[in-house]
Amino acid sequence: MAEINAGKARVVWVDYVKGICMFTVIFNHLHVPDIYYRFTYPFELVGFFFVSGYTFSTKSNWRMFISNKLMSLVFPIFSLGMINCLFSWLAKGTNVWDYISGLVMQIPGRWDDLWFVACLFIMEVIFYFVVKAAPSNLCRFLICILLSLVGYYVLVVNVGISLPWHIQNACIFIPCLWAGYVCRRVYKGQMLFNYLTKNHPWRTLIVAALCYMTAVLVYNNSQADVHLLRFGNFIVFYISAITGLAMVVCVSVMLESCRSNFFLKALSFVGVNTLIYYAFQSKVISGLAVLTAKSGIQYNSYVSSIIYCVAICCLLLIPTYIIKRFFPFLLKPKLK
């Protein structure tokens, strides 16, 4: 969900990955049937981490890097979060100061709007210093694995306190950022990525899908909720997340070679605008839920949940158009 390829031609399959993951984020917020949740939840967030690593750059010094991330990631948390605060106050009479405090502290479950973006900011700052300090990609990988183990087994399991700005999740999933970085920036990593996803996409997809379905079906891990630091069986969750990520990336690379059509354009549009979609999807879901409840419409069946998710994606075109057309500075201010 980070700023992708600013000033450069966009990578089409990256937008497809983000679009697929954004669709599943909205989908899983609808309280869909359990089997849907089990099949879509594990990879929905790691996809964003992976593509953020793929587009990650350490060319600037640390001051410029952090300054850019503050503008492109932290600023939208507060600008878009305050819009959500206004809607919550108008609709529910939410305490404004509690909401603002939640935005500032970013504690899981306490008005932490755009929590994923806050997590990504912490993760990218950590990874920047890992890249600069470690002499090789093997060392960086080992550091990321160590951070992941510490993040879960020490900070989540033993400490058990939700740290601000989602530090635990930033540590737990930083290997996914490393994986994306290696696939783009390292020669052998790029060769392996091209070999698996471009030269032999069907083989990779079949193997990844079989591994993913095995991990998902053998153990019911539907109680997992990354936002609230609930992972169920952590090993099963991580295996399913990685194999699900491989599956989604492979599908996205394959779609990149297809002729452009309405579906692909819509998927790319969602991928390009994931920040806005992520910021306002909960409000659109809540508003639409009120309307459907009054009309007696149910959306928790196998078919209606998909239709409902598509409808929400269409409704999110409205805030996307308004913000990009009239208030683009809400996403990243232009500094003189």
Short description:
This protein has 16 helices and no strands. It is mainly alpha-helical and 336 residues long.
Write the layout of secondary structure elements.
Elements: H1 12-28, H2 34-40, H3 46-54, H4 62-92, H5 96-105, H6 115-133, H7 137-159, H8 167-172, H9 174-185, H10 187-199, H11 201-218, H12 234-256, H13 262-272, H14 274-295, H15 302-315, H16 317-326
Helix pairs in contact: 1-12, 1-13, 1-14, 3-9, 4-5, 4-6, 4-14, 7-9, 9-10, 10-11, 11-12
Report on the structure:
The chain is 73% helix and 0% strand. It is mostly helical. Helix 4 runs parallel beside helix 14 (274-295), helix 7 (137-159) packs antiparallel against helix 9 and helix 10 (187-199) crosses helix 11 (201-218). It has 16 helices and no strands.
What are the key terms here?
336 residues, mainly alpha, disordered N terminus
Mean pLDDT: 89
Outline type: globular
Give unreliable regions as ranges: 1-7
Q: In percent, how much strand structure appears in the residues?
A: under 5%
Report the order of strands and helices.
Answer: HHHHHHHHHHHHHHHH
| Radius of gyration based on Cα positions | 19 Å
Number of helices: 16
Q: Note the gap between the termini.
A: 25 Å
